[in-house]
Amino acid sequence: ANVVVRHSGGLEQSYGSGVVVKVRDHRAYILTNKHVIGDAKGGNIQVLFYQREESKAEVEWTAPEGVDLALLVCQAIALDGYQPIQLAEQLAPTGESVFAVGNPMGLAWSYTEGSISGVRQTSGGPHGVELYQTQTPINQGNSGGGLYTRDGKLVGINTLTEDKQVAEGLSFSISSTTLLKLLEPGEKEKWFGE
To answer: What is the rounded CA–CA span in Å between residue 28 and residue 83?
Structure first.
């Protein structure tokens, strides 16, 4: 379900990760971070799939009030028959084993594992933001990628890590429960349902 997301606008270029949450009529819906796509302020967004298909993406949705989430949509021929991702609808407990898939430092489709160190609440959005603190290794390029439980449920979107010179093993993911609270009626079924 992991993809590489590249954003270019003017002289700036960035890359990160994304999670394919649904495929319908050869169109893929991809969850990522706003900061991966330049806070959705225009520019060119390209998505690279594991099968090496590359597609130009458009911004379908951005989370309100500064929450670092966005949804992209693009053509996806190679993903015919793709099974939609399962979103965790409850917070995972501290100590839960998790893994991340992303593209750290340009090393596409990397797998790392660890556990949830704690659940933190921060401001943002109408309901606040629930963050997972995890010691699963997260580096530049992992942003927008998924944090999963052992049974493959998407519990979070990796968003930031502390400076490695200051703290080791201190990374954060926005919880899927935060995402679900931000969706308007009908949006969950449209973008995340069967």
So the answer is: 11
Indicate if 173 belongs to the active site: no
Q: 86-111, pLDDT tens digit by residue?
A: 999 999 999 999 999 999 888 889 99
In this predicted structure, the answer to whether residue 168 has a pLDDT above a threshold of 80 is: no
Closest CA to 114 of 132, 88, 140: 132
The catalytic residue among 17, 143, 171, 175 is 143
CA neighbor of 138 nearest in space, from 169, 93, 96, 108: 169
pLDDT at residue 88 in the model:
95
Contact present, 145 and 103 (Cβ < 8 Å): yes
Which residue of the set 8, 14, 35, 127 is catalytic?
A: 35
Per the CB < 8 A criterion, the answer to whether 15 and 5 are in contact is: yes
Q: Report whether 139 contacts 105 (CB < 8 A).
A: yes
Task: Give the active site residue among 7, 68, 171, 173.
Answer: 68
Choose among 50, 42, 49, 16: nearest CA to 161. Answer: 16
143 is catalytic: yes
Query: How do residues 117-162 score in pLDDT, each as one tens digit?
Result: 999 998 877 778 999 999 888 888 899 999 999 999 999 999 987 6
